[in-house]
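Task: complex structure prediction.
Instruction: return C-alpha cells for all chains below.
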Amino acid sequence: MTVLREDTFRGFRDFIYEKSGIFIPENKKYFVENRLARRLQEMSLGSYDDYLNLLRFGGDKEEMRLFIALITTNETFFFREIQQMEVFINCEAPRLISMRGTEALKIWCSASATGEEPYTLAMMMMESPLTSGARAEIIASDISSIALEKARSASYGQYAVRNVPDIYLRKYFKLNGSSDYHLLPRARENVKFMQINLLDEKKMRTIRDMDAIFCRNVLIYFDKKAKIKVVESLYEALRPGGCLFIGMAESLHDITRLMRPTIINKTVVYRKQ
Amino acid sequence: MGYNTQMKILVVDDFAMMRKIVKGVLAKLGMTNIEEAEDGEQAFKMLQAGNFEFLITDWNMPNVTGLELLKKVRADAKLKALPVILVTAEAEQSQIMEAIQAGVNNYVTKPFTPDTLKVKIEKIFGT
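Output:
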C-alpha cells in the first residue's frame, strides 16, 4: 500500500482547489487517500506523485473527468433532508407559482450529483396538490460529467432509494432484478442536466430568472472566498422573490447580507428581496 | 460578421427557460428573427410550413427528440439542406458521433456563452 506524502498531499490540495474550488484542510489527508487509492491500483501506479503528475501534465481529459468525479461526488439518496423539500412544496412553491402565473416554475439544483435531489423534487411536485397543476422546469447541474451521466441513466441501488416512500417506489420506479431501481420517464421529463462548476462565473451567468435554487451540502467544501463568490452568483441567478436552500447544517452567516434568512418550520429559507 | 443576422431561426426546447437562454444568446449576436417550438413534433410542422434558414434544437425532449428531428429534417426533400445545431447536455462522444452520422452541422454543450455559439454559427455559414 503506497502512502500519500505530505508534499504530494499539498500538491493534490492545490490542484483540487484550482479545478473545483473545494478546499481540503491539512487534517483531511485521509480523504484524498481514501478517494484515490483504488484508482492508483487500477492504473497500476506506484505512487500518488505519479498520479498527480499524470493529471497535471498528461492532458488526459478522460482521467480528469474521473478524478473530478472521485473527489467531488458524494453518495446521496432520494428524499434527503426532506423537511426542506416539504417547506419548498408547501410554502415557497405556491407563492412562486402565483407570481409566475401561467409560466413554468424555474428551479435549479446547482450541485445535483447523481440526480437524486432534482428527481425527488420533480416527483414531489407531481404528487402534491399544491404544485401538481403547475409546470416545472428543473435544471440540474454538477461539476462532474460522470455524475451527470449517472443521473441521466437514472438507475439506482438500494442505498439511494432507502428513504423513498412506498407509494413513490411503486409509481415512479421499475425494479430490475433485485436491486436496480430504474426511475421511469414520467419522473425525469421535467429535469434537464448540464455541467457547471459553481466557480465558473461565465457559465454561472447563463442561468438567470430562477424561482428557486437548491445548493445543499456543497458550500461546506469551499473556503470563505469561494463561498462568497458562489453565493453571489446564485443570488444573481434568482429572480426577485425567489428563494435559496442550502444544507440543513450550513449557514450564510458572514457570507452574504444580500439575502435574509426566513425560518419556516425550523427550516431556513433565503429569499431575494 | 459572417452570417446574415436577419435569417429566420427556429429554436426548439421543451424548457421555456432554455429557449429564452438561446434566444438571449442569439440576440447578443444580432439575430432576432426567431420562432420557438416546444418539441420535435411541433418543430417539424413549423419547419415544413415556414421558410426557416437555421435550426437550433435541444437533444433531450419528450416525444420527438432533437436527434429524431434532425433525422426527419435530413430525410425531407425540402428541408434536407437546412443548417442544424444540436444542443447537448454534455459533450458525450458517443452522442456526438451519432449526431454527426445523422448529418448535424455542429453542436454546442449546455451551458454555452455567446462567443461559443458565434464560433459555431460562423463555421456553418462560412466566414
